[in-house]
Protein 1
Amino acid sequence: MRKMKKIKYLILVVSVALVSGVSCDVLEEEIISGITVDTHYSTPDGFEDAVNAAYERFRYFYGNEDGGEITVFGTDEYTNGGHGGAQFINKYIAGLDGSSGTFWNPWQHFYIGINTCNAVIGRAPDADIPEAEKAVMVGEVKFLRAQYYFHLVQFWGPVHLTLEETIGVETEARRDPESDIYDAIIADLEDAIDVLPMKQAEWGRITKPAAQHALAHVYLTRAYQPFGEGTQDFSRAADLAVDVINNSDRELLDDFQRVYNSDDGSGGLVHNAESEQNNEIIWSIQFSSDMMLNGDGNQSHLHFRPWYETFNDGLDRALGHGYGRPWIRFRPTPWMLENFRPLDVDSRFEKSFQIVWLYNTENNIPEGASVGDTAIWITDKTAAEFDTAAVRARLPGVNLFTWNLEEIDRDWCLWRTDVSVNAPHINIFPCPWKIDDNLRPSLNEQRGSRDYIVYRLGETYLIAAEAMLGRDGNGSAAMQYINALRERAAYPGKEAQMHVGAGDIDLDFILDEWSRECFGEQSRWLDLKRTGKLLERVRAYNPDAAPNIKDFHVLRPIPENQITRTTNDYGQNPGY
Amino acid sequence: MVTDAATGEPLIGVNIVVEGTTIGTISDLSGNYSISVPSAESILDFSFVGYTTQQVPVGNQTEINVALEPGAVGLDELVVIGYGTQRRGSITGSVSSVSSDDIQERPVLNAGQALQGRAPGVVALSNGGSTPGTDVTIRIRGRRSLTATNEPLYVVDGIPWQGSITGLNPRDIKSMEVLKDASATAIYGSRGANGVILITTYRGGNMPTTVSYSGHYGVSSVLAVPDLMNGEEYYRLKEVGGRAFTQAELDAYAAGVSTDWVDLVLGNGYQTNNQLSIRGGNENTAYAMSANFFKEGGVIELQDYTRKTFRVNLDHQANKWLKVGTSTQVLKGLQNVGPNTYGGACNISPLAEPYDAEGNLIFRPGADPLLWNPLADYEENISLDERESFRVFSNIFAEADILKNLSYRMNFGPSLREYRRGVFRGSNSSSRQGGTPLVRKEHQRIYEYTFENILTYDLVTDNHNLNFTGLYSIQESNAEETFIEVENIPYETQQYHNLGTAETVNDMGSDLSEWGIMSVMGRVNYELMGKYMLTLTGRWDGSSRLAEGNKWGFFPSVAAMWRISSESFMSGQDLFNDLRLRASYGITGNTGIDPYQTRGSLSRSFYNFGDNAGLGFRPGTLANPDLRWESSATTNIGLDFGLMQGRIVGTFEVYNTHTSDLLLERQLPITSGFNSVFENVGETRNRGWELGLTTRNIATGDFSWETNLNLFGNKEEILELYGTGEDDVGNEWFIGEPLTVWYDYEKIGIWQLGEEDAASVYAQYPGEIKIKDQDDNGVLNQDDRIILGSDMPSLTVSLGSRLEYKGVDFSFMLLGVFGHTVYNRYLRDRSTLQGRYNNLNVDYWTETNPTNEHPKPDGSREYPLYETTRCYYPGDFFKIKNVQLGYNIPRTVLSNVGVKKLRLYLNLDTFFIWSHLQKGLDPEKYGGDISADVPSTRMYSFGLMVDF
């Protein structure tokens, strides 16, 4: 009996000992799968990780539906197609307010990007890497921070400016004056210019020409502002742009088409490393065909594509160039297409647009037609110039359309006004080749891999021209840069017809040229706003937006989340 | 033998315990029992639910026959209270019990469904729709926390159960106790704040072997088919909305096409449950084993859920002082979530046709080329989403009597969970729509254990009854997961079993998440003269999830009870046979946040530079090194009463829970770079009352009628947020309001013709939804939104009734929930009025139909402007949850065929619904967000229970 008792106590003692032994580290929390800011950013790899992360958020603006809707819609170039839910952005009607996710998304991504940049710049002194390397990396990130702020200040005016990483909980925010924000942007870009190399080992990283182009762009934009320095800013912008044109390794390609696409070897177009890393590109947002790296991808191929697949039997959605997935968001205005005339002199219309779709399946194909025959053809001609009967006889089942305004009362005109609202015309229009994505692995894949060009030398020429026009008050100096672009755009032998004189050049002409060169590239709304032409040109050229646009629309609404989550008073832009 | 003193019928399952020991058994199906007692001085305790307990000194008797008196209250019945048991009549805290009859009566999926309507203060609401295998949500006395968990703690045979309760076979459950007030839950300290549900499974006993089978088969069908537009109506919608027609649509309209897609994808579902169990034992060893097969098929035939469980419960008296045993369940579950073709069928145009002239499926029906034919998903193995779970959940225990009054118990509860999800979307499935096949595989393994050391000391004298319980426990969890998603596999027959052959890797990852809790607890129960009871508890908990320096919390409670009916001044009356007054106060904690929240972490970023990877890390979550315990202080006052010799038995309670330092995910202005942070902020209060009433309306020999009413109300309220007395509009938290409110614009109609000028102030047009400009400043913005209601009901009523006449029984249960507001997401999703998707056949505005219901269709908007304002409905509903008719075949008939008991029943689930919603929508949805992604159903079933 005594022995038994001993055993009992032994069990008790052993249990207690066991528990105490096991339990020492029960409450210790060790993060194994994740890492924290403090431990990682000071290491060489960690610092590079932080720099890379600073780039990423531009992917949520360029090639993204929201980013497109606030820059492409509601301009002279583009109106809405038949699909999509954000047509109110184009039309400037109810719904265009602070509750719209279309504004919230870019806003939040920019500020997430800014905090990442602030962390990199603030923690750089502690990072354990060679100073020279570090300086370049910090230069890249200062460029990126400047870009995030430049986007914010252009859309929203006075916004919260912080150059420090957020460490604790921050529930207040300010509306700092635009001039302060421009000062911060300019300081960052000047620093970047000082340290960045002409060329980086990795494509897509920020270079000195990119920072110079950006600063030119910033000065040009500030020049129009009441707090800007007018002529001096124009002059600085012009000098920086000219420096990039004359002294960088960037050059205008001979063929406008090659800016966006390469030859696929059989006369077709493809986007590949050759086209995406050409010598004209200064800064492009990187996308990848490796889906692990691609995030949401470049989705612009969806947004500009018409609903070609519903017009003909025998023509279906497919892989490859020209037959992608259609989201029918952005539809050209008549003005934008007309702006390319004369089409036999300026090659940019032909090189920019897909106007023909071919039958691509035997399924239900119309009698007499075969795969490879024309199914849809959008011409610029009038009926008198284009023998529709003959074409129809030659091409069984073909759908013919024209964008010629003289035909506006006829059934085949894209812009015809006399038909019911249910007509399919809203869903068919010329589709830009510059957004096409032939590398998508799957029919419905949204995540495109085409790099998104933000800055290229062609645009540097336009900045130079606009800056000189502003500086000089006339086109005499600007002429040279405009004509360089126009010459390149001319069909062989038509160069002289493309030339313009100093007297032809005014702000409207530069905006026209800008559209011919860079239409649809998520800068139009900002270009019109910068030059003070938004209301005038939207009223003139965008029939869906014209009746509704008002003065206050030159600023975008502050997202409601920002206002309601801020503990101090964060004011809305006027009118909203 | 144990019999019913009133009827002489044998009583089955009576608890027989040698007083002051752990030696015990239960009576078998004939009421017989046998037990070995240590000595002639031993006293046998006979207790049974609904009967008065008897104590019988053994002496030198070898056969003790006992006739138990029906005593409605069951004051002496032993109730599981956590780390021990207590007589019901001595419980100081708020504990509701659900008996095995109530649990086993209805065909249910899990313990949560079995709880529905059974206990006051417990809300068990479905999560909407009828996807087979879906959990119900349980809330005990409302919610306290804004963003930390509000889930109660489940404790199965003494071990905390993490994860879905659907993984536990409800047919093994003998009883459930719901601990509600702080006194009852404080012993679970940090995890008791949301209430505790103690689940006890069947065990064997010293009794002859009994083999039982119970099973049911039911057929389910949708409550109602939604009223969607037909071809003609849909054509009109598009026409009015100005949405462009395609040629194929015009052709289909001209040909009079009108496809009823919903009808094509819905069928009848079914449910079957088969339980085979065997129980028995001898004086030293008791066992209970069961095997269960449950299968539910949805009304969408691609969805089903299968559960197989096996259980072994063993108790062995190794020697005089040592008892060992286990409760172990093995589970294998498979949920085929499948593709949800219902959504596709509701969306696709009625002008589209499913089959061509030859009867072949058209994948992309011409009249709606943007939508894939939902019937494509019915092709064999074209689209799979298989979620398989495997779990071993065990409690291994040893119990030693160290001294006469002191015993020690050790529980070791390991649990291993494996979860595997395999997703395969073939090229022709509706999710890939002709694209490349997509495959995803996920694996998760969670290992947890609970290790507990419990000391119990009992001291019983004439007037004093002292019980002390001490606990030292640790619990740890280690969860690992791995997933990979690929695209473009070379052949589809591999499904998700050869991922390496894919051309594209979309995503992959793995994760490790660990946490631990360490606890010390002590409890003293003291009973004076059988009239005054006092319970004191204290628990220290340490949690790894909280910040250094804030890891430990202390959670004390005190409770007292006065058994008024035992006082001498009550002896002269016979109205009350039981009257007890209880009061308690205590503090419980909540640490229901994910691990690692106190530490700022980095988020992966994805980028590339040309062909080189540009992966990075950006600041992802904000560190909060100050995170500490969220704590709730609860005051509870309860009155238990029995009237007219137990004909009326009830409990009335009021409580007030004050929660402070709420662990909450607070939304931040994004200008800081962070969207949210976990913080301890604010205070909330839950006040409520509960009434539980059981009446035996009729109780004669052959005929009995019993009714059970639960009635409770709860009001939750935010008292303070940041100490400034100001609301937090950004988070939609308002002082004086419940934790969640519907905060939106107020619809006041539709802009009508003639109101063009007034509408144009808001850049609107006739036909659009008219919103009240609350501040009347000509602009609609964040300042014009108001609180439209809350999703939390103010009153819940459940009424169950059972009638028995000879062998026939009839029972029903009613459920009513009132005072809340629901958001009809189904209406929103199915009436976009855009003309892109089919639409509910709603009354929409046109120039000739000036309704104020729905706006004019608008093809240019994905949703109508201010569309959500149409969707708030009063949430009140009333349901006949269940009706059942059963028949017990008379014993005399059965004894001839060797069957001890046989009961047959017909059951009808969700018999009737009254609500403000459209028919076919089930208003019962926790959180009030009625999405009806899968149609709600009712079920007719037939079942039988047989004992051999």
Protein 2
Amino acid sequence: MWEQVSQALDQSLTRVMTRIASLLPGFLALLVALLVSSLVAWAIGFVLRRSLRSLDFDRKVADWGLPWFRGEGARSPTDWAVRIVSWSIVFVGFLVGVTAFEATLTSLLVSQLFAYLPNLVAAIVVLLVGSAAARFFSRSVLIGAVNLNVQYAHLLSIGMKWLILVLTGAMALNHLEIGGKIVDEAFAILFGGIVLTLALAVGLGARDLVSRSLEKQAGRMPEETAETFRHF
Amino acid sequence: MPETESLPQQVKEQIENIGHADVVIGLPSFKTSEDLSWAATGGFTGLNVLLAYPSSGEVVEPDRFPAGHLVRYPISAPERYLSGSTSVYGSFHEVLQISQKAGSKACCVWNSTPQGASMNAIEQLLRPVLDQGFDLVFPSYIEAKLGALVNSGMICPMTRAIYGRQVHFPMAIDLGFSSPLVDRLLQTDPHTRQPRSAQWIATEAICAGLPVCQVNLPMETPRPPDSTDLSSILTTILGRLFADLERNTSFWQRSSGSQMVPTFGTPGRRDEDEAAPVEVQRMIDTFQLGYRNLAEIWSVALPPGTLLALKKLTKMTMSEFRMADDLWVRVVYDFALAHRQRAINREHLLRAMTPLYLAWVASYALETKDASTTGFLNRLEQLALAYESQKPYLLSRWRWPDRFNP
């Protein structure tokens, strides 16, 4: 009886040890892959950081109108770019290491991840373009409204900015396939809300301006300073 | 340099049938035959005159212009002077091509409305070319205290300080040309790859060292159409003025001071109504609104000291509202530098300058409200001298843009 128990334990121990022994190369491969990818990530990050600094990347990104990338130190656009590239390389190294364990499972994981990648890239592009467009158009509205002496120019500019940002956010979430119908409905409510707010603000606040403009167009009221000042 | 030719065959045939012309007069803004009532009499005795008008207007019967020949030509869209629309900025290219084709000695392009023209004025513009060998003749209109303010406040004094020539209306669109200048303007600029005629003609001639002069015309500055928007025109005009600074850096960095250009004719005078009230509150309001909302954009172009001075200006009451000449000149120069550095979108930058320009207009109008003609001309001379005295500031910041500037 004890012999049988001892034999069973021996066999089990042997199986476990064999299993562990079979996993060890995988662990080692994972460690090596992580180490190598970290070294490669560090080297590429170093070169990338120097290149971006020499190209004055931070200032250019600020000019393109990506406000949340503005800042010093860790939050600068150069740091963001270096971090994204470095962590992507480490992640690829991790995937290579994991593949050493169980080819079937990890290849499935990798194929799903790669299938999702275009959505992620598209969402990032939409966010970048949308934020640049929001900044550009809000600035255009602000300057135009100030030049027309519209007192609530800032409100109009913020309204324009958030309209574009909300639209951009909804499009990005759609690309990421997050939220489903909730995103569409939330977007419709938010967008409609902003438009209604702006319409009310402009409608109530600009009555005088609109009526003056219409009267001027209809030729009922002369331009206040047309006869006094000539700019050209 | 390659020449840019866009004349259709039909127009070339018209010119060939006419043969040689001594003088070509172009009227790109022509619309109806009534515009040419002045053309029936006088002018250019003994010279063969050709009058060119665009096919977008009515057909002119030959009896409307008995003193010469008529040529009708189509205006092509892409090469507008200073990139503006035809009605505002005019078009030189087609008329200059006609002049070259006809082998004329002198050419006048009258881009303002033809009703305002006269054969006498056109002859005055062309006499210095025909008789004295000048290559470019500018008109000098009657200056009004509150007229042509963009010219008085920026274009004229800045051109004088930068390029060293005292031309009263450097961006005038009614000009007289010699045939060598016509040939030059029809060439393509190797840097911009545009015909030179679409660029700013004044700086083309001055930087090429060609003899230029001006003629006093007994008329006020031509009026732009009512629909023109101040901000858009400022953007176009300042964009050209600032872009030319970049294009002609090697010329203006070497020049200092300014010289009078030969001026012909008697200067016209306009009786200023010294007691006329000026309404500037709205301009001051726009400036104050601009300071509250556009300070972020202004801070891209203006150093802290200038922003502080503008802040003080926002707090002034209307009676004490004065913008010092040095402050205004530095604002203009700083915007020119920001335009060069592309610190932000150029159109945004130039449009954001409108409230600052209105502040200068308000300040100038209040300061000269009781001034006579001599008084306001002296005031403008003072401003021009401020532009000249501040030129080293522009030069220094142009050469070392990253140097600390309080």
